[in-house]
Sequence to fold (287 residues):
Amino acid sequence: MIASMTAFARRETHLPWGSLSWEIRSVNQRYLEPSFRLPESLRNQETTLRHRLKQKLARGKLDLTLKFYPTDDNQELVLNEPLLEKLVTSAEKVCSKMAKAAPLDPLKLLEWPGVIQASETDEEEVQAQVLALFDQALDDLQAHRLREGEALAAMLEERLVQITTHLQNAQAYLPAALEAWRTSVLEKAAKLQVEVDPQRLEQEVVLLAQKQDVAEELDRLEAHVTEVRRALKTKGPVGRRLDFLMQEMNREANTLGSKAMNLDMTQVSVELKVLIEQMREQIQNIE
Fold:
């Protein structure tokens, strides 16, 4: 089953020590291009997160945002007593050298950097929850991409059915086009009162048929249609292969138009190019 590169997923969890939320947005891109936005305290997890991402996705431009909200009620204030004792000792030494030193202000001592510390949440637990939640968000994203891919596959199949119909029509138009050309030559000769050599006329018809023969183009287009259907049933990334097939189909449709002998064949070429372009635009979103 094919997957679209356009998707969105959001996961969050609430624990006694705080809340975590992952938000992932994905759009089409030729390669895999992730952009992580992580809290500074969890920045060291980026390498692990990138590795997990590459295991599940092959293409797409992704914005991945992690938000961490620690629970303030869960934090206790811890007094750094060794540092406080050093500050008091140093302050007393300074005071002893001053004639009229003001008494020490306990609140000022508490404001000194490092004297008061918040109890830290278990770092390993936080990181484990970050990774677990990330895996869940990635699974949701991939499920969304697969649903989008299923819709794209249905749309592409509709276009393939229409292309097949036009190819069948082109096969039917060719003999009629040759006969119409033969009749046109005879009618012009009759108006000009010119005698036409039947044998020479048939030779010209054969030469024109060889020059305007589009059987190879039609056969290749049918083969490409078969290959597109096969790719749509293939597991894994197929976007680049489908894009290549669209280029080949468009080339054959152009050749078909250049060899067109009447308006019917020209119209077939135009309709094919329109359908191929519609498919190509949607294929840009396929992983």
